[in-house]
Amino acid sequence: MLFAAAIVTGCAAPVSGDLVTQEKVEAIKINVTTLDEMIRQFGPPRSQHVNAQGLQTATWFYFNNSEFGAMQDQRTLTVIYNRDHTVKEYMNSSAGEKASAPGR
């Protein structure tokens, strides 16, 4: 039971440093950037699954808490991969942004 709680807590832990920077996101190239390259740039994704079309989807989360525990910054990068494991499309969003920036 404690092991399961540790795993869940580990998934919610903040990432040290800002791994999902705008500069890194802008370097993603549709139909070129691979899953392995994404892992090298952003670290292992926080979640992965296969969508209804049978394509792999990976999501990276970054959040930064203030010294009092309040969330200051939250970013999510979700990537859908082609069958050859290159990026098909992505969605990069930040808490407080008015719109997400889809990659197409």
Mind sketching the topology for me?
Layout: H1 2-12, H2 22-26, H3 35-42, E1 47-50, E2 56-65, E3 71-81, E4 87-94, E5 101-103
Antiparallel strand pairs: 1-2, 2-3, 3-4, 4-5
Summarize the structure.
The protein is α+β, with helices and mostly antiparallel strands and 104 residues long. The chain has helices spanning 2-12, 22-26, 35-42, and strands at residues 47-50, 56-65, 71-81, 87-94, 101-103. It contains three helices and five strands.
Could you please describe the fold and organization of this structure?
Strand 2 (56-65) and strand 3 (71-81) form a beta hairpin. The longest helix has 11 residues, at 2-12. By secondary structure, the chain is α+β, with helices and mostly antiparallel strands. It has 3 helices and 5 strands, in the order αααβββββ. It has a single domain, classed as Beta-lactamase Inhibitory Protein, Chain:B, domain 1, CATH 3.30.1450.
Amount of helix: 10-25%
Helix tally? 3
| CATH classification class | Alpha Beta
User: Averaged pLDDT, please?
Assistant: 76
Strand order of the largest sheet: 1-2-3-4-5
Protein name: Lipoprotein SmpA/OmlA domain-containing protein
Organism: Achromobacter arsenitoxydans SY8
Features:
Beta-lactamase Inhibitory Protein, Chain:B, domain 1, 5-stranded antiparallel sheet, disordered N terminus, alpha+beta, 104 residues, single chain
